[in-house]
Amino acid sequence: MAEATADKVTRFSAALVNAAGAEGAREQRSARQQLEHWARVGQGVSIRTSTARRRVEAALAGHLPIDSLTEEEGVVFDAEVDALLDERLAEVDHVEARAAQGLSSVAIDEQGRMVEYRPDGTTVVLES
């Protein structure tokens, strides 16, 4: 007897869902189908225990120079770094962390403006 699987609720960033919707439309998939496709592809890459995968993991750990990776390994390396950065940016308020160290930060606000966030809590919209 096959075990029924129920969908589980999870959250994704709006940017990821929007990207999946755009890519899915080109591939005749819904945003959900595209996210599932990307997850399956990523899972396959992540569990692959090839020499190339071990080389990428060594470069990520700092044990292998990045410039020694092949072009294909470099693509995987870049994707791993992008994913790690996205995870870290979602976990930590970097502006707040830098302010606690007495440092200013510059970031794009909700209106798309470049803004300097100062340690004293003030902000300055920077001219473009």
- Cα radius of gyration in angstroms: 20 Å
**How confident is the prediction overall: mean pLDDT?**
87
Query: What is the end-to-end distance?
Result: 63 Å
**Structural class based on helices, strands and sheet pairing:** mainly alpha
Query: How are strands sequenced across the largest beta sheet?
Result: 1-2-3
* Tally of individual helices: 5
How many domains in all?
A: 2
The counted number of beta strands is: 3
Strand content: 5-15%
Largest sheet: 3 strands, antiparallel
Helix content: 40-55%
Overall, the morphology is extended
- Sequence stretches where pLDDT stays below 50 over 5 or more residues: none
SSE pattern, N- to C-terminal:
HHHHHEEE
Oligomer: single chain
Organism: Gordonia rhizosphera NBRC 16068
Protein name: ParD-like antitoxin of type II toxin-antitoxin system
Pfam families: ParD_like (PF11903)
InterPro entries: ParD-like
Describe the fold and architecture.
This protein is mainly α and 128 residues long. It folds into 2 domains: 14-90, no CATH class; 94-125, no CATH class. It is 53% helix and 9% strand. The chain has a 3-stranded antiparallel sheet with strand order 1-2-3, with helices on one face. A hairpin with a 5-residue loop joins strand 1 and strand 2. The protein is extended, with a radius of gyration of 20 Å. The termini are far apart. 6% of the residues are buried.
